[in-house]
Amino acid sequence: MTLSSVISIRDKGAIDLLHSLLKQGISVRLRVSGRSMQPFLNGGEVVEIAPYGMQGVRHPRIGDIVLFCDPQGNPLLHRFLWRRLYNKKIHLQTKGDACASCDTPVPVDRVLGYVRQIIFTNHTVDLQTLRMRLTAYTVTTRTIVLLLLQKANYHLFTKQQLL
Hints:
- By secondary structure, the chain is of the alpha+beta class.
- Helices cover about 30% and strands about 30% of the residues.
- It has one domain (about 5-160): Umud Fragment, subunit A (Ribbon).
- Strand 5 and strand 6 form a beta hairpin.
C-alpha cells in the first residue's frame, strides 16, 4: 500500500489493518465521512493519518484532530481538548467541532493517530505548520470556553430554579 492509497473504514478488519499499519509507523490516507467536525472538515476530504512517535510528534497535542475508536468500536476523528486522569489512566477529552457535547473520555492507548494533512485535488494543507497549530489552539480554546460557559449557565439556571 502506498501513501497515495485511500482506504475506507467499514468493518473491524479494516480498523485492525489501520491500527497495524499505524503501529508500524506507516501513515494512511482516509476519506472523511460525517459532519461532526464542521466547518473544519465537511465530509469527503482525504486526510493523512500519521502515527504518534513519527516526525517529532511523540504524543497527542492539544488541538490535534485524533483518530480513535469510541466504546462501540466506531472510528472517529475529533479534536483533542485536554488530558485527564481517570481510573489511574491518562484519558483524552475529545469533541467534534460541530457536536454539542464532549465524547466519553478516550484512553490514550485507544488513540490510533492524528490528522497530519488534508489533501485536496489541487493542494495540501499541512496541519503541523505554525499557522495551522495556532488555528487548532484557537478553536480548542473557544470550545473549552463555550463548554465552561454552558456548565456555568446550567448551574446558574439550576440555582435559580431552587429559589
